[in-house]
From TrEMBL, chain A:
Origin species: Marinobacterium lacunae
Protein name, per record: ABC-type antimicrobial peptide transport system, permease component
Residues making up the signal peptide according to the UniProt record: none
GO cellular-component term (any): plasma membrane
Highest taxon of the lineage: Bacteria
Subcellular location per the Swiss-Prot or TrEMBL entry: Cell membrane
Phosphoprotein is among the record's keywords: no
Domain MacB-like periplasmic core: 18-259
Automatic annotation (TrEMBL), chain B:
InterPro entries with a match to the protein in the record: AAA+_ATPase (IPR003593), ABC_transporter-like_ATP-bd (IPR003439), ABC_transpr_LolD-like (IPR015854), MacB-like_ATP-bd (IPR017911), P-loop_NTPase (IPR027417)
Key words of the record: ATP-binding, Nucleotide-binding, Transport
Protein name (database record): Methionine ABC transporter ATP-binding protein
Gene Ontology cellular component terms for the protein in this record: plasma membrane
Keyword Aminoacyl-tRNA synthetase found: no
Keyword Transport: yes
Molecular function as annotated in GO: ATP binding; ATP hydrolysis activity; transmembrane transporter activity
Stretches assigned to the ABC transporter domain: 7-232
């Protein structure tokens, strides 16, 4: 029976009430948004590679290997021999391997030399495999399959010609001009670094480096298709490779065996462990973000408290009148607390609507621009956070309610001004 | 056993501060059922304070106050609130109405805090709103009703009549009015008092009317002159 009185009273003060709701809505949207981005980022991050048991490269730091092989950040100091790759691929415990050869680029995007195995075995997200948006995967020398972001940014279509630059960086001077590549397919977006890659075969990588010494083309050498066809394009080295085992239980045994490999210094890492270690480096940022948004919520609640408290003075007369009609001080106390609770709840609802509306509006932009896939799902733990906000908001209401209580007792029937 | 008096005050003395001399001392005051009393006294003599005491929102007095046979000092704060809602209608000098309710809702509001008055209003007119309408009509507020005037648009005289309707709805035993006419001109003032008295008489409601304006005393059955303690002693 209190609700309609409350509603009419609030409607009468719709300006300040709206202000309260908005401050809470914005702070809740921010808090929930940060939590959402954090969780989706984390999810996306940990699922950059899935189903891969080991990543093998030249001996270096665990994070370095992860960074250059998976995230295409930085570069390997050493490559590994093709024979070592062959040896491990043929091990009886190994189900599949994906070779990765890095070092060339195209307009700032990395060129990844790999094999058909990449399309067959690479998994990301929750066990998702790569799919083509148009065209097909490469199957010959001088064919390239583009990641979604590459095609989108550079505006390439199937059939376009692409010149690959030697080395990394978009302004590389030495380009493999004599061996243009043809776009044969474009991958669907994955939200992983694959989107920013140009995929070619290992043989293509060998081919474009024929006649190169120490990073520069040898003068007078011209590679034409006929000559290439007669040459052995088997790579001599690759940068790293991913390994899928037949049974997961052999993973530590395999890791140890690779780390002790006698022919050259190799290192095998568990992607999950390496990702976890890398995430911990980034974890501080994550906590700082959460802390800042919690402070914003606190500021929002304080703002509401301020508005409610100043409103109390003006409502003194109203309270005395209700008391004269027969309302107990306890009733008025409940009225004011219920008001704070309703304002907070409305603010939370509005904030969530705002967040999900924004999410719908920017989801595709964020995915294309930042490679971050924002889901519409409810972030875990958000319910608890919002309950805490609601309780805090209601508790904030006890302060003006206490003021109202004191007024009603002091004023009796005649409000003092 | 219920006494015949609506309001009975015995050996009352009250002061705001602990050791200050009493602001109010009333030896014996009785207001019989259906009768009217004019309470007058100079400003600051404690008239409003007396109403606060009788309405049960102020404690810390000596002596006894009885409303409809119930001694206030034997009741809890909660019970006094209930007693006020059930048996007392109050009218003030101004700011009687909630601006965010319609005049009709303002009148009906009194029944919200009292089952007894709600039941009576429903018995009388079928519903609370109907009874509110009836009272407003009897108090000459047909125009306000028919034009659906918002509370904020009412003249002071109309506001006071809406307040009177609210005090009357559900037939409480006692109406206490604290200078309800001080903002009205002479003509409106007399009409208001006559209307209020007529309605009160019809409902059998006792009326305690407070004012410093002696010329109003003629309308009432009894008059009590309240003098400030300082002046009296
Ligand atoms: N809450 C309070 N605390 C302390 N003193 C008070 C309080 N309320 C009223 N008083 C004092 O009690 C005295 C009587 O006040 P009251 O309002 O009852 O006078 P009144 O007779 O109604 O005057 P008026 O005709 O001007 O309305 C005054 O001196 C006033 O200052
Ligand atoms: Mg007074």
């Amino acid at each position: 029976m209190m609700i309609d009185l409350l509603w009419k009273s609030l409607k009468n003060r719709r300006g300040t009430a709206l202000l309260c709701v908005l401050t809470i809505a914005f702070s809740v949207a921010l808090l929930a948004g940060v939590e959402k981005v954090r969780q989706d980022m984390r999810e996306g991050f940990f699922n950059t590679v899935s189903e891969t048991d080991l990543i093998v490269g030249a001996r270096t730091g665990q994070i370095e290997l992860l960074l250059y092989s998976v995230f295409h950040l930085g570069s390997a100091t050493n490559n590994i021999r093709w024979s070592s790759y062959q040896r491990i691929t043929n091990d009886s415990a190994v189900q599949w391997t994906i070779p990765v050869s890095l070092g060339d680029s195209h307009k700032g995007f990395r060129v990844v030399g790999t094999s058909a195995s990449f399309f067959e075995h690479f998994r990301f997200g929750r066990d998702k495999s790569l799919s083509m948006s148009t065209g097909r995967s490469f199957n010959a020398v001088h064919e390239v399959t583009l990641g979604a972001k590459v095609a989108k940014t550079l505006g390439y279509k199937v059939g376009d010609q692409v010149i690959i630059a030697h080395g990394l960086g978009s302004t590389s001077f030495s380009q493999h001009k004599d061996q243009p590549f043809t776009v044969v397919g474009i991958l669907a977006p994955t939200g992983t670094p694959v989107d920013q890659s140009l995929l070619v075969s290992l043989e293509s990588i060998s081919a474009i480096h024929i006649g190169w010494r120490a990073g520069v083309p040898m003068p007078g050498f011209k590679a034409d298709a006929d000559k290439l066809a007669t040459m052995d394009l088997t790579p001599k080295e690759i940068t790293a490779f991913m390994v899928g085992l037949k049974t997961k239980t052999q993973v530590f045994q395999m890791q140890r065996a690779i780390n002790r490999y006698s022919k050259e210094p190799l290192m095998a890492i568990l992607p999950g462990v390496a990702l976890q270690e890398l995430w911990q480096v980034l974890g501080g940022v994550e906590k700082a973000m959460l802390l800042v948004s919690a402070c914003v919520v606190l500021a929002g609640l304080t703002g509401m408290l301020g508005v409610l408290l100043t409103g109390m003075q003006q409502r003194r007369r109203e309270l005395a009148l209700l008391r004269a009609i027969g309302a107990s001080p306890f009733y008025l106390l409940r009225l004011v607390i219920a008001e704070a609770c309703i304002l907070t709840a409305t603010g939370i609802a509005a904030g969530l609507a705002l967040l999900w509306g924004t999410l719908a509006a920017i989801q595709s932009i964020v995915q294309e621009g930042l490679g971050l896939y924002l889901t519409f799902g409810w972030p875990t733990g958000l319910g608890e956070i919002l309950t805490a906000v609601l309780i805090a908001g209601t508790l904030a209401g006890t302060l003006p309610a206490w003021k109202a209580w004191r007024y009603t007792l002091a004023d009796g029937l005649t409000p003092k001004i | 056993m219920r006494s015949a008096d609506t309001l009975s005050i015995q050996k009352l003395s009250f002061s705001w501060a602990k050791n200050a001399p009493a602001l109010l001392t009333i030896d014996d005051l009785k207001l019989g059922s259906g009768s009217s009393l004019f309470l007058r006294g100079p400003s600051g003599c404690g008239k409003s304070t007396l109403l606060n005491l009788a309405a049960g929102v102020l404690e810390g007095y000596k002596g006894s106050i009885e409303i409809c046979g119930q001694r206030l000092e034997s009741l809890s704060a909660r019970q006094r609130d209930r007693l006020r809602a059930d048996h007392i209608g109050l009218i003030f000098q101004q700011f009687n109405l909630l601006p965010w309710l319609t005049p009709l809702e303002n009148v009906a509001l009194a029944c919200r805090f009292s089952d007894r008055r709600r039941t009576r209003a429903v018995e009388r007119s079928g519903s609370v709103i109907e009874d509110a309408r009836r009272l407003m009509s009897e108090l000459g507020l047909d125009e306000v009703l028919s034009h659906n005037r918002p509370t904020s648009a009412l003249s002071i005289g109309q506001q006071q009549r809406v307040a009177a309707a609210r005090a009357l709805i559900g037939g409480p035993e006692l109406i206490m009015a604290d200078e309800p006419t001080s903002a009205l001109d002479t003509e409106h003032r007399d009409r208001f008092i006559d209307l209020l008295l007529a309605e009160a008489r019809e409902c059998g409601t006792s009326l305690l009317f407070v004012s410093h304006d002696l010329s109003l005393a003629q309308h009432f059955e009894h008059t009590l002159h309240l003098e400030g303690a300082r002046i009296a002693s």
